[in-house]
Structure formats: C-alpha cells, structure tokens
TrEMBL record, chain A:
This is Putative DNA modification/repair radical SAM protein. It comes from the Bacteria. NCBIfam families: rSAM_link_UDG. Coiled coil: none annotated. Keywords: Iron, Iron-sulfur, Metal-binding, S-adenosyl-L-methionine. It comes from Georhizobium profundi. Its cofactor is [4Fe-4S] cluster. One of its GO terms (molecular function) is catalytic activity. Pfam families: Radical_SAM (PF04055).
From TrEMBL, chain B:
Residues 317-477 form the Uracil-DNA glycosylase-like domain. It holds the Pfam family UDG. It comes from Georhizobium profundi. Belongs to the uracil-DNA glycosylase (UDG) superfamily. Type 4 (UDGa) family. Keywords: 4Fe-4S, DNA damage, DNA repair, Hydrolase, Iron, Iron-sulfur, Metal-binding. This is Type-4 uracil-DNA glycosylase. It comes from the Bacteria. One of its GO terms (biological process) is DNA repair. One of its GO terms (molecular function) is deaminated base DNA N-glycosylase activity. The lineage of its organism: Bacteria, Pseudomonadati, Pseudomonadota, Alphaproteobacteria, Hyphomicrobiales.
Length: 411, 486
C-alpha cells in the first residue's frame, strides 16, 4: 500500500471518529500557560470553535489513532469485517496536528480514540504516549480526552489519568444482551469493571495524600460513556434505567446517547434508516431531568405503557401533563423542588424566582421576565395576579402546548 | 442640561467621575447627555453646559461595589444609549436597596441582557478567532482578523495571553488591535481585514477535518446557525464549505443507506481466527460441579441465577483460606465491594476488620463471604442505596454458598445478621433471640449467630452505638474462644 499523506490519514481517521457523540471539553480544572510559557488553557466551561452542519459542535480534534480493529461490532464502521479504508497515525503526527490546530485556535484540545490493534496494552500505550508528549514535551495545557481500552494494564490507566482531563469507556449498547448480539467480542462485565476501577482511582486520587496534603492530578474532568440508541430494540425506559445505574455506580459526568446512524458498508443485521434524532434529543432531556431537576428515573416514564418517551412533547411537560394534581405551583410560595418541576422553568429561572421573591411578590409579568416563555409556564403556576383556573386540568392542554408538526421537524 | 464628553467608547473612569459629580449634585438622568469625543457634532448646537455641577458641601454618594463592577463591564456594550442607562441605574441602585437582586425589574433585566450579550460576544471571540501563521524576521507570528460585536477586544487580551503564552500573536479588530510578543500586551488602533494574512497552510487540513467529521445523515442546520451565526462566517476558513456540505448531505446519506452490505473485508477471517476463536472455547459450564473453590469462583463470575447481575458491576465471591476453620457470612456486597470485587472492604467491612483485630482473630485465617453475591441497590442520583435482597434472590444464591461451605468444610460458620442466618439455616429465625447461640442446621452445619456490622454503623445515638459495638466485640470474642477450643 502506498504511503498515505497526513491529509489523507486525517480524512480517514476523523471520518472514522464522527460517530462518537462526545465532544465536550468542559468540567475540568481551570488552568493556563502563564506559568509554564507553553500553549493552552482550560476555563472550565469549554469552547465550541466551530459547528458542523449536523448541528454538533467542534471543540476538539476528534480522531482515531488508527481505524484498524480486531473487534467486529455490527454498528461500527471500523469493525474488522468492514471494507472501509484503513489508516494509522504515528504518535508524532497526532501531536503535531493537535498543536498546529490549537495554535490557530481551531480547537480546545484533543479527543483521541482508537481501534484496537494487536493488544489492548499496545493500543492504550500509544494513546498515553500522545498525551504524555503533549503535556510533558510541549507543555500543552489544553483539553485532552482519551478513550480507554477496558482490558488494558492498570498502570497505563494510571498514566492516562495523569495526563488526560477526561477518560471514557463506551458501554456500547443499553443492555448486555444487545452487546452480546451486536458486539460479540466485547464483554460487558469487563467494561463495567473498568468503569468501577476508574471511579475508585478518581476517588483515591482526589484524597489529599498524607505527605503532600495536595490532591494528585487524575482525570479532573471525570469519566463519561456512550451508548448507541436504536441499533437494538431496548426502549427508552431501559435506556434511562441503564443511565441511572451508570451515574450512580460509576459517578459518570456524562452519558452520551448516539442515535445509530447508517454507516457506509453496514452489516445487514442493522436497520438502515435515518437516525432517530428526536428520540436522541428526548433522551438527553430526560437525562437532564435526572441530573439537574431531581427526577428519579422511574418517575419519568411512569404510566407510559410502551416505555417510550413522547416524541411530541419534552419529557418534563409530558410528566407534568400526566401529574396535573401536582399543579399549579405558587411561584411566591412553592419550594425549589416543586418549582423545578414546572415545565418552562429551568434551574436558572428557579434560582432567580427564589431570590426575587425575598423582596417582591411576583406577578405573572415578572415571571415572564425571568423565564424563556411565559406561555409554557402559565398553565402550571399561580402568581399574585394569576390563577390558571381550569387550564391546568383542561383535556386539550397537551394539544395546545404541542408545537405544530411542521415546526417539529426543524429540530 | 449637562453634557458629558467621554474620551472614548470604553472610558469608564471618565464616565465614573462625571456620574459621581452629577449624582452628588442630585441631577436627574433626563438632564444629562453623554457622548464620546468626536462623534456627536450635532450636540454642539444644543444648549448644554459641559461644566459639571458643584456638589453641595458634605454630600455623600455610595453604592455597592458590585454595581460599579457590573457597570464597568456594560460600558463595553455597543448600545449608544448605554452611558445614560448606566447613570439611571446608578441612581436607582443608590435609592433602592436590593435593586440588584430583583431580576424581574425591567432595568435589571436590561442590565443582565447587556452583560449576557457581552459575555456571548467574548465567548464567540474566544471561539472564532482564527490565527494565520506568518514569518516575522525568522520568527513565527500568529495574526488574526476578528470583528466583535461590542467594544471588547482590549478586555479579552488577557484570555488570549493566558492561552497562547508561548506564542507571539496579534489580533486585529476594527476598533482596537491587541498584540502579545511573549512579554507584553500592546494595544493598538483598529485595523482592517486587509492588514491580516490571507492564508495559512494548515487551513487545508482544518477544512479536511471539518468536512470529514460531519455526518450527512444527521443534518441540523438550525442548530448549527443558532450557535455559529452567519455574521461570523466571513472570517472562518471552514465556513465557505458549509452550503455545499448541506446541499450534498441528502445524497450522501441516501448513498450510504442504498449501498448493499458488502462481503467481509479480506483480513476479517484471519483476525477472527487469530484473536477470537481460541477465546470462544473454554470456560466452565455452571452445571458441572466444581471440584475446587477456585473453579467455583470462576463459575460464579458468569452467574445469571437471579436478575441481580444486570445492575451490579461484578460477582463478589468469598475470600480467605480454602481450608479455613471459620467462615463468616454477611448479607451482600455494598457499593465499595461491588467496585473492588472483594467482600468486606467498605465501611462495614472496615468496622468488621477492626473488631476482628480488637478481639485477636487473624483475618488471614478466616474465610469471609456473603449470602448474596451481587450488590442490590436503587440508584439515587450519584449514590446507590443498598436494598435488601429478597428471599428468591437469597435462595438463588444458596447454590454458591452451599458449595463454598461444602468445599471448605469449616468447623464453625458465623451468620452476620438475618439474611445470612436465613441463607445458612434455610428458614427465618430471629437474630436477637438466637444471638451468641449456635444453631445447628439440617445439614449439620454449626452456625454462630450475631448481627451484621453495618447495623452498628446505622445507629445515630452515640451511646447506643458504643454499647452495640461492645456487644459485637463480645460476640466475636466468643467466636475466638470457640476457634481456640476447637
């Protein structure tokens, strides 16, 4: 095979990485280069430097070290039976590309993943070497996310945690059955153990050591994972149950849902349809309800017979419509927990309401200034000059709150 | 009518000085006109005095430091009316206590909107500045052209210095330009696009990346434009590609879907043979009776006898000498045990170990295990709340416990708590009534009864907790005596 140029490799190995949903560069510690004279900073929030027409932000150089892989996961473009073109970056090429892009302010850092070649240790060793060269040789202070290989040597994992901001291991699919059917060589038990080990390591390193009283640096951005949605028959309830388990068991920062998307050269066992983007969106919304709004997983879909999120309305509104006895909530008296359950009130609006009402009694107009859309909120609250009356229990409320189908398809 | 002329668009000191004088003299907002030098010729014809009023002797004017900080930020906004808005707000804050806390007030709402707009503009500047590399006297220099919405360039120099410390760079903007030579920030007058370099070799790589990372099957143009408004496109090297990518997306996705699944890649069979065929063999079926504890442990790894395996991380098997005289049986692994794959390593385990040590039992000489070998829990946010195994689960797991005991043949078994006692005896016996007794089971197993150490951790009252701890230690001392007597 003729030698590929860096440009050709980049085309192949970023194409191979585009099915990974994660692109976050947030949640790490703040740091900059003023002290070291190197390159790079993280502000804690992450910056999206560009957006592709698929609506997804580009904050990191997201590439594979290689797309050769000994695994044969049906949903993956890089599986061993796929006829995709293969390429392999050298460690040096990845380091240079990252620095060249970073210095031009195209990116926040690097998200490096890899197909598995020969052995997990060899592959992981190379990923770690990229991160080590960036951090040590080039004093690079930008964001680094490494995908870890479940079966690799714990020592490599330890090194990875020292250099990377975030580590991740994909659970692949919502159920073990799904994994054993579509990714026959992957072992869910190993993936779970690896995530457990990572949580233990992160907790152990966040304890101040006896000698230094300082925390060691270890994956300050935590760990995340991804599962593919729509490639197997798991319903939303099952998916959210898996997420709730993952958040509680391994203290993940994020679970990413990646709507299974047709890939070139797909296996015949998979549905070749447009990816269910709306479903993915609803899952993210439900995930937010669990993480920021105090919802328990089993509440979100309670009473929904097919275990699927309503595609027409967002899950918070769906929950409120199914639990109207909890409404209206008095914006001048209701506690934080009840206010967070009001459709249309986000965490920021709730915080503002709680602050303002210490000095003023809120009218509907005031609420309107504190939230995005007063129309969304109106049926579910009372204010000084506002009672929803029969609106809360009106059978046509859902229809009223549902955007027209034509508008829906824009999202 | 008073007229205040500021030295430039972001002359906060000038504004602050004037505002203070005016406020001290009690001038109302409607009686002041602010402008920037050289920008308001028509003002000259108005009957305005540029002299500030003399404040009355002894007058005082104080506002919270916070408002000064926030106004300092807002002066960078492009709104020409901002100076008088700032003055109005300043007066209101001085008169209305807590005004800043009232987000529903229209002026506060306007303040917040302006702040948000500035923050967003700064964020977009951090995101969409694109450096191009040039050569300056044999050295690398990075130059960018950027058009911010507000007067923020100078304010953002610090961000770029902290990020690109090891680089020399210049950011040109229409209002002001900033430069970093590795030692100092220099602020220069505004520039034009032509002053910036036209190209950079790395842009081809960047455009290749931008095109390749896009998935044509997931077109969401609105979402993209909400975050990357078109006004920024003209200075982004990747943006000219976007219309073509959108136009071609439907066809590209269709082609992907239409293409028939192909035959496996040529190297696939070889990889399967080399890596996976050997691994698919081996492994012991559960139905075969294991002859050693190690073999049993291996079998238990893949246990599916009850649904608890689905949520747990792993099977937590017993641990200790294969021929121990005493076997301790707990209830089930907890959060820490589930992660570590070892029994009794969490808080209850530490309490248990400490008590063993206190009474002089060598943990190395005893075998510890659980009645149920997978962690059962309810997820609650970031925590897992232990939930008690039901009798079906205990029953299912006896498959492993019975075999463990058969292989070890201990002289004494210690049931820690009710679940363990049920699992060992096969019936529900009260722990309190049988505590510190030895129950002999149908199969002839001698079971010493005590509480589970986690019970001790849950007692809120200090005195009761201390008393129960002593009782537990006494129980274990009795076990020690039985061990020594045997």
């Amino acid at each position: 095979m003729a030698q590929l140029s860096t440009l050709e490799k980049l085309a192949i190995l970023s194409d191979a990485a585009k099915y990974d949903a994660s692109c976050a560069s947030s949640g790490s510690t703040k740091r900059n280069s003023l002290g070291t004279g190197g390159i790079g900073s993280t502000t804690g929030a992450g910056i999206c430097h560009s957006y592709a027409p698929d609506g997804r932000c580009i904050s990191l150089l997201k590439i594979l070290l290689t797309n050769f892989c000994i695994y044969d996961c049906a949903y993956c473009i890089n599986r061993s039976s796929s006829n995709v073109r293969r390429a392999r970056f050298t460690v040096q090429e990845v380091v240079d590309l990252t620095l060249d892009f970073y210095k031009r302010n195209y990116i926040e850092g690097l998200f490096l993943s890899s197909g598995i070649i020969r052995s997990p240790d060899e592959t992981m060793g190379q990923l770690v070497e990229v991160a080590r060269q960036l951090r040590v040789t080039h004093r690079f202070a930008g964001y680094i996310h490494l995908k870890t290989i479940p079966d690799c040597d714990p020592l490599l994992l330890e090194e990875a945690g020292r250099f990377a901001d975030r580590l991740s291991i994909n659970v692949e699919l919502p159920t073990d059955d799904g994994v054993s059917r579509l990714a026959p060589e992957k072992r869910p038990a190993e993936i779970r153990k690896a995530m457990g080990n990572l949580r233990m390591k992160i907790e152990e390193k966040s304890e101040p050591t006896l000698r230094t009283k300082r925390k060691e640096r270890f994956a300050p951005g935590g760990q995340s994972t991804q599962m593919i949605i729509g490639a197997d028959p798991a319903n939303d309830d099952t998916i959210l149950k898996t997420s709730a388990r993952l958040y509680s068991s391994y203290h993940l920062k994020r679970v990413y849902y990646s709507a299974f998307s047709p890939i070139p050269d797909a296996k015949s066992s998979l549905p070749l349809i447009q990816p269910p983007l709306m479903r993915e969106h609803r899952l993210y919304q439900a995930d937010w309800l669990m993480r920021f709004y105090g919802f328990e997983q089993n509440e979100i879909l309670a009473g929904q017979s097919d275990g699927m999120l309503d595609l027409a309305v967002d899950p918070k509104l769906a929950w409120a419509l199914a639990n109207r006895q909890r409404f209206p909530v008095d914006v001048n008296r209701g506690d934080r927990e009840s206010l967070l359950r009001v459709p249309g009130l986000g965490t920021k609006a709730v915080a503002k309401i709680l602050q303002v009402r210490r000095y003023r009694t809120l009218r509907l107009e005031d609420v309107g200034r504190l939230c995005q859309s007063v129309n969304k909120v109106r049926p579910f609250i009372t204010a000084l000059d506002w009672q929803p009356g029969g609106l809360t229990d009106n059978p046509s409320l859902k229809a009223r709150m549902t955007p027209q189908p034509a508008q829906l398809s824009l999202f | 009518m008073y007229a205040v002329t500021l030295a430039d668009q972001t002359d906060f000191d000038g504004w602050r000085h004037a505002a203070r004088q005016l406020a001290l003299a009690g001038v109302e907002p409607g009686d002041v006109r602010f402008s920037v030098v050289g920008q308001t010729a028509e003002d000259l014809f108005e009957d305005a005095s540029s002299l500030l009023p003399e404040p009355p002797a002894g007058a005082e004017f104080t506002v919270p430091r916070e408002v000064v900080k926030r106004l300092e930020q807002v002066i960078h906004h492009r709104d020409p009316d901002r100076f008088s808005f700032m003055y109005r707000l300043l007066l209101r804050v001085s008169r209305e206590k807590n005004l800043l806390r009232i987000a529903s007030d229209p002026d506060i709402q306007r303040l917040e909107r302006m702040e948000k707009s500035i923050r967003r503009d700064a964020h977009k500047m951090h995101a969409f500045v694109r450096f191009r590399k040039i050569d300056v006297a044999g050295e690398e220099w990075f130059v960018a052209w950027f058009e911010p919405e507000h007067y923020i360039a100078e304010r953002e120099a610090g961000f770029f210095r902290a990020r690109f410390t090891g680089m020399k760079w210049t950011i040109l903007t229409p209002w002001r330009s900033i430069s970093w030579d590795g030692a100092d920030i220099t602020v220069m007058p505004g520039a034009s696009k032509e002053d910036a370099p036209a190209d950079d070799a790395a842009e081809d790589l960047w455009r290749t990346y931008f095109t390749s990372i896009f998935n044509p099957a997931r077109l969401k143009v609105k979402a993209m434009q909400a975050e990357m408004p078109k006004k920024y496109w003209r200075n982004l090297p990747e943006a000219p590609l976007i219309p073509g990518m959108i136009a071609g997306a439907g066809k590209a996705a269709e082609e992907m879907i239409a293409r028939a699944p192909s035959l496996s890649a040529p190297h696939h069979a070889r990889i399967q043979e080399q890596y996976w065929e050997p691994k698919k063999m081996g492994g012991m079926a559960e139905e075969e009776i294991a002859e050693t504890l190690d073999a049993l442990e291996k079998q238990a790894e893949g246990c599916r006898r009850c649904p608890l395996w689905k949520d747990a991380t792993q099977t937590v098997f017993g641990e200790g000498p294969r021929d121990a005289d005493v076997v301790f049986v707990g209830e089930q692994p907890g959060d820490q045990e589930d992660l570590a794959g070892k029994p009794f390593v969490g808080p209850a385990g530490q309490m248990f170990n400490a008590t063993l040590e206190e009474v002089g039992i060598d943990r190395q000489r005893v075998y510890v295990t659980n009645a149920v070998k997978h962690f059962k829990f309810e997820p609650r946010g970031k925590r897992r709340i232990h939930s008690k195994p039901n009798s079906g689960e205990v029953q299912a797991c006896r498959w492993w416990l019975d075999q463990e005991l058969t292989l070890i043949q201990p002289k004494l078994t210690v049931a820690l708590g009710a679940t363990a006692l049920t699992a060992l005896s096969g019936k529900t016996l009260p722990v309190t009534k049988n505590r510190r007794q030895i129950v002999t089971t149908e199969s002839g197993l001698r079971v010493f009864v005590t509480v589970h150490p986690s019970f001790l951790l849950r007692i809120p009252d200090k005195e009761t907790a201390a008393r129960e701890r002593r009782l537990f230690a006494e129980d274990l001392a009795a076990v020690r005596d039985l061990m020594n007597a045997a």
